[in-house]
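Section: Multi-chain targets

For targets with more than one molecule, the full set of components is provided together so that the structure can be written out for the assembly as a whole rather than chain by chain. Components appear in the order listed by the source. The example entry contains four components.
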Amino acid sequence: MKNDVVQEIIHRLRNAGLRRTKALEELITTLLESERPMTLSELAASDRLSDQCDKATVFRLLQRLTEHGMVRRLGLHERAAYFTLLLPGKHSDYLICTSCGSIEAIKAPCPVHQLEDEIREKTGFRNLYHELEFFGVCPKCA
Amino acid sequence: MKNDVVQEIIHRLRNAGLRRTKALEELITTLLESERPMTLSELAASDRLSDQCDKATVFRLLQRLTEHGMVRRLGLHERAAYFTLLLPGKHSDYLICTSCGSIEAIKAPCPVHQLEDEIREKTGFRNLYHELEFFGVCPKCA
DNA sequence: GTAATTGCAAATACTTTGCCACGTA
DNA sequence: TACGTGGCAAAGTATTTGCAATTAC
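Its structure, encoded as tokens over all components, is:
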């Protein structure tokens, strides 16, 4: 069923004029299997992609996926940008250790949707979304 | 009274072994006067600092200020990092236009403190804090 | 005088682009 | 065939460091 999701995503991209390539398929699969956002370097070095294509290709694929709203680029405080697949109803906030850099998605329901609605109404911003991260030192590092 | 705050901050830094320099004073003043986080480049090019010192100096000052908990480094999605003075009881969340890049602090009370407490208890993370940003297209750009 | 600080230049890190060959439709 | 895509190498942007000279205390 993971494959169904991948196919569905590719199908939408194809309608937008993109072509089905092995690299695209592997990238989407990798992002889908990852439980946390990944950097360009991590993706390019991952099992599925490392011998599949160049880092520049992964970069351009991520760019296209982002343009088409299938991927979101996150900050997360590192020097490198992080990328995550954008699945309907799958928003995550993150808990990040500033010492070892571990990143995990937070299970608890996100508490900012109401504020987000207020902001949308009051400010007239369009396409509003948010990014929420908690930073601290994890028990292992403390 | 702004100057009092600057002096107070410098006083604390002096206790930590740092020296009072013109550049340090101007940097803190600039950050204090700014209503939004600023990048290293913006700071180095600002009125108070541009003819005061080199960009590398601003970088190192920000580094020291961050180490001593007086400044926080934020992601905010741009390629460059943003820095903001950390004043007691002055936490801000931000609303950012993905088109023109404008950044403004949100006045509404931050809705994540409760979740933050829960996470602190459940995970055992230390020095926990959060970063919350809303992204969208502002009315001017839409 | 001693140790922290600074400027300048050089080194890194990560991202982005140019160009031509290649693959998909 | 036509146009999106890919690899490789080079350029771009932001950050970080080395070192000798300077400054604060």
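Chain A has two domains: 1-86, 91-142.
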